Task: inverse folding
């Protein structure tokens, strides 16, 4: 099954740690509207051009509006994009359709309109339930606005709400991070993503660190906070199914809340990305769009796909990615791996695998080699030991 991704490159304000492509602030209301209108026309053109290629006509089971802040768009625009996608591609009737949303950009009424437009999953950027953290991260919302936003999602009819939290902020204590997780539990989201604060090159945060205005947390404390996160969430009814992702365990017979879109990425399923900076992957080709709105719009005005680059994955690259992505998420099916790559990982890496199992870092689960909570903490190191 395949996936569709749409990158909406607008934010009200650029957060100090973020290196995703988005533009902000927009100087004037008129300027913003016209830029948004031109972007939407370009996006629709990109969808039309891609849909002309018969290769891409297979069933799609997820659509993800990411960014940027897609919730800044009017719900009628989201609806028009969804209608266009449905008219050009085979979208499954039970498709997971996610909208990334930031508190401070939506209210109950707007959320209801997104729900009616066809969105059935919200992924909310909350990051912290402490106002001083939000201020440090230069988020546009407060903790109480974030909580209200989660409640508004439920009131608007969303039954699948995820939110993102960030740990390892400078000077963050275990007690403060624990309080974040406890406040998250009061809201009972179906899914939580917890990310360690990454210092991305050339972001304002990176420069603050260079100037010694901010001291990043050390790696030992980072590992402690991460281990605590895993223990806390798994003992509160969440299943860890990827390094940073936790889904609420479903009652028997109910669908689980793992993000199907991200699982498709990690399983090497096909996906098409639209919008500036969006990536696509098909068979063994990967390509990506220009990360700049002006040439993106210009090229599509001329009916040209706005490509910035691409690569052909060799069998070795494919295999290395399969190991890395499998270990990061739901494990490697060893038999499937043998059939796909004609390589027997279990005999070739027998010593490493048995060591990992003995140390409690991995386990075998119905033919799948999976990392345990302890293994997820050491995931990068473990991936490098496989050959
Ligand atoms: S709202 Fe999200 S995408 Fe926009 S700048 Fe902040 S972190 Fe980046």
Result:
């Amino acid at each position: 099954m395949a996936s569709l991704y749409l990158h909406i490159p607008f934010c009200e304000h650029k957060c100090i740690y973020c290196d995703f492509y988005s533009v902000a602030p927009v100087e004037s209301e008129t300027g913003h509207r016209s830029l948004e209108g031109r972007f939407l026309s370009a996006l629709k053109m990109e969808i039309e051009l891609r849909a002309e290629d018969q290769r891409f006509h297979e069933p799609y089971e997820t659509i993800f509006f990411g960014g940027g802040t897609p919730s800044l768009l009017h719900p009628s625009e989201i609806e028009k994009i969804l209608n266009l996608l449905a008219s050009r591609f085979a979208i499954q009737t039970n498709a997971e359709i996610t909208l990334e949303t930031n508190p401070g950009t939506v209210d109950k009424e707007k959320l209801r309109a997104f729900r009616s437009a066809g969105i059935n999953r919200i992924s909310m950027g909350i990051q912290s339930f402490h106002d001083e953290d939000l201020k440090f991260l230069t988020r546009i919302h407060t903790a109480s606005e974030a909580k209200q936003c989660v409640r508004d999602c439920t009131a608007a009819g969303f039954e699948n709400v995820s939110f993102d939290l960030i740990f390892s902020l400078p000077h963050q204590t275990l007690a403060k991070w624990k309080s974040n997780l406890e406040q998250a539990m009061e809201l009972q989201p179906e899914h939580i993503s917890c990310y360690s604060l990454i210092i991305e090159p050339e972001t304002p945060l990176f420069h603050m660190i260079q100037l010694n205005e901010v001291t990043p947390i050390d790696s030992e404390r980072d590992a402690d906070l991460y281990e605590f996160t895993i223990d806390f969430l798994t003992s509160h009814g969440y299943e860890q199914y990827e390094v940073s992702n936790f889904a609420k365990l479903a009652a028997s017979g109910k669908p689980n809340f793992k993000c199907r879109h991200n699982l498709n990425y990690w399983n090497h399923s096909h996906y098409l990305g639209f919008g500036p900076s969006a990536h696509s992957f098909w068979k063994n080709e990967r390509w990506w769009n220009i990360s700049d709105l002006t040439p993106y719009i210009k090229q599509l005005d001329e009916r040209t796909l706005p490509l910035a680059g691409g690569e052909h994955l060799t069998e070795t690259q494919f295999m290395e990615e399969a190991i890395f992505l499998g270990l990061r998420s739901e494990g490697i099916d060893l038999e499937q791996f043998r059939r796909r790559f004609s390589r027997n990982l279990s005999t070739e890496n027998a010593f490493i695998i048995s060591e990992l199992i003995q140390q409690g870092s991995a386990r075998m689960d119905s033919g799948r080699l999976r990392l345990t909570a302890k293994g997820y903490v050491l995931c990068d190191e473990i991936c490098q030991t496989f050959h």
